[in-house]
Amino acid sequence: MGRAAGSDVARALVGYLPESARFAPPQTGRGFLRYCAGLSSLPAAKAAQRVEAVLAWAGLESAAERKLATWSKGMLQRLGVAQAIVHEPAVVLLDEPASGLDPEGRLALAKLIRGLAGQGRAVVFSSHLLAHAEEICDRIAILGRGRLLAEGTPAELLGQGWRPAPETSPLEKLYLEKVGARA
Amino acid sequence: MPAPDSNSVLASVRRVLLIATQTLADALHLRLTLLLGVAGVLLVLMALWLRDFNFGTVELKFLADFGLGAIGLMGILLAALATAHLYFSDITSGTIGCVLTRPVRRWEYMGGKLAGVSALLALFVAALALVLAAVIAVREAQLGAMLAPLPVFLQACALVWLKGTLVAAMTLLVCSYAGSALFASCAGLLLAVVAHLQAFTEAEGWRSVLRLWPNLGMFDPDLLLAGGGLTVRDLLALAGYWAVFMLLLGGLASYVFKHREF
What we know:
The complex is a heterodimer.
Chain A: H1 8-12, E1 14-17, H2 29-39, H3 44-57, H4 73-85, E2 91-95, H5 103-118, E3 122-126, H6 130-136, E4 140-144, E5 147-152, H7 154-158, H8 170-179
Parallel strand pairs in A: 1-2, 2-3
Antiparallel strand pairs in A: 4-5
Chain B: H1 9-28, H2 31-50, H3 59-93, H4 95-100, H5 106-143, H6 150-175, H7 181-194, H8 204-210, H9 222-227, H10 232-258
Helix pairs in contact in B: 1-5, 2-3, 2-5, 3-5, 3-6, 3-7, 5-6, 5-10, 6-7, 6-10
């Protein structure tokens, strides 16, 4: 991006979700997002508008005034993505965003990540769930022992015969059917 | 897009205040705060029961000394335990990653934490001081005597608060390199004990070493109540001494924290 790493400008251009984020229990979702927006030095009116926008975008409006201690893991991950984009960064870094999520949460998260890319943001995420990466990513990099071992589009890495993985596996479909959720 | 004023002093102050407010809100929800608050109130009230064992001191003076001692003790415990807990809960919850990847400087984070705990201690001391003032006022009315003018009592409470904030700054310094909340709170309490040793040391060599560390004995309120309060000059000197050590400890904590990886 042509900015010194660690500079204020570079940090304002990046949104980040840490691995296994478990945010402070006494807070509400809206309160936490306001805090994050304030730390990004957004003006008060703009911050309030952005908080409502990302709450709606992540489908968390109805839970926004509930304490985070009562939120599910999937909701907290969506909140994590919401805090990463509340200041409208150009690049979003997500560290193992799908770890520990049930199929419903994983599908909701995949939808959010695709939505971010659709907004023109570069989304970089790390994952050990390779099927998840194959399903969402335009480009994939494989790292091992601190080295870049392979990098390219799924077709480049897997050959021209590669076809996109289905959004849900048969077992996931069955799970969602049984728990009454819709994919 | 980067926020236009993220580099300005005003933006820095805003971020420090935000972190301080957040820290205070988190601290007020801690069971530890409630527990130490209840223990403090019980100790202050216990002075009424123990007043017969006053070792010859005037009763009102005994009540004030015992009560302020209890507030000071609970304040020191709260300063060390809450500072360590609030710092490490940000690390274990991942909140620190969300904070430090924004245009927030490390010193702003540490400054905000220290300011938040200081605000908590101010509320804590004020609440317990109110209980103590009520106890003393009741006995004053019953005995027809007066302990000390209100400004002197307020000065004594301010000293207790200043002492607590210094312990919080010492604990934050330990937190900046420590690996666990337990270690940081124990080390913070140990450093608070060391900071009380200057008054007990005769050897000049040890005194010279201990002068590098805050002397918390200077903030003991018992002499104040007996002597009729501090002059403005003494008060300014004490405030200056406190400010220098707060800046030193906070600055050192920020410096160590700046080089810490998460």
